[in-house]
Specification:
The chain has 272 residues and is mostly helical. 57% of the residues lie in helices and 8% in strands. The chain has a two-stranded antiparallel ribbon with strand order 1-4. Strands 2-3 form a two-stranded antiparallel ribbon.
């Protein structure tokens, strides 16, 4: 007798990879405890019918699987934010050290910071926020007050002279990392990596879905969450090899990405 496959609605299994679609497993290792329908309805109300609909489509209109996909997506966002937070702090501190070396401890007041309106505006807002709260405006406080967007913009083309003056020294591993991607190391390459990290970070911070990846800035294509975290790790390695090794060892993101809920199939049948 030929074997046949039977789908168990609402149950799910882990599937390896980077969060993308793939083959279903052909045997059941374990069945997740069902979610109370009241909780599923509550989640639908909480996140809106429109947002839940995108998960329903991915789940083949299975309410419970859609709920699990949403929770899995949220877990990815938390894990990614943890990793990117460390990369972001490493990036801003590495750039600050070079700014202090080139422009001095009051680097934020240097005319070079006024050549790009985005940098000048962010700098002025940060100074205002610090002075309004009665805090002294120091290099350390400015570094912490400025958003990731400031540091990414600092790597854009209007800052070419600062890059050549010393910002490039913030990325001792940059040449090797760029070479591994088949690209030439330089300000443009670092900016492209940092920009991807910023887009992914903002998407997570605003609780936007990562289920289908995220759009790349200025391009008509998307990047998966798995590939996005690879870029973040690459940037970390450009900044500090030891930091990147520790992040790779401690990150929970790959394991969560590999645990994407999927409909589970059981295999039944006997010998022909």
């Amino acid at each position: 007798m030929a074997s046949e496959q039977k789908q168990t609605p609402g149950s799910c299994t882990a599937q390896g990879g980077r969060g993308g679609p793939g083959d279903y497993m052909t045997s059941v290792s374990q069945t997740a405890a069902p979610i109370n329908p009241r909780f599923i309805a509550a989640l639908q109300r909480a996140i809106s019918t429109d947002r839940f609909a995108s998960y329903l489509r991915m789940a083949g209109q299975d309410d419970e699987l859609a709920c699990r996909l949403y929770l899995w997506d949220a877990d990815i966002g938390v894990a990614v934010l943890r990793d990117i937070a460390i990369v972001e702090i490493a990036l801003r501190n590495a750039l600050t050290r070079q700014l202090e070396s080139v422009l001095g401890p009051r680097w934020f007041n240097d005319p070079a910071m006024g050549r790009d309106q985005r940098l000048a505006g962010a700098r002025d807002r940060a100074i205002h926020e610090l002075t309004s709260s009665g805090k002294a405006v120091t290099s350390g406080r400015m570094t912490a007050q400025l958003s990731l967007g400031f540091w990414v913009n600092l790597l854009s083309s209007p800052s070419d002279s600062l890059w050549r003056s010393g910002l490039f020294k913030a990325f001792p591993g940059g040449k090797q990392m760029a070479s591994q991607t088949g690209q030439r190391y330089g300000r443009f390459w670092v900016h492209s990596q940092a920009q991807i990290v910023q887009v992914m970070r903002n998407r997570c911070a605003h609780h936007e879905p990562l289920l289908n990846g995220f759009p790349l800035p200025g391009q008509q294509k998307r990047m998966s969450a798995g590939d996005g975290i690879v870029v973040a790790m690459r940037l970390a390695r450009a900044l500090d090899r030891d930091l990147a090794d520790w992040l790779k060892q401690s990150s929970t993101t790959p394991a969560i990405l590999a645990d994407r809920p999927q409909p589970m199939f059981t295999t039944t049948g006997g010998q022909p």
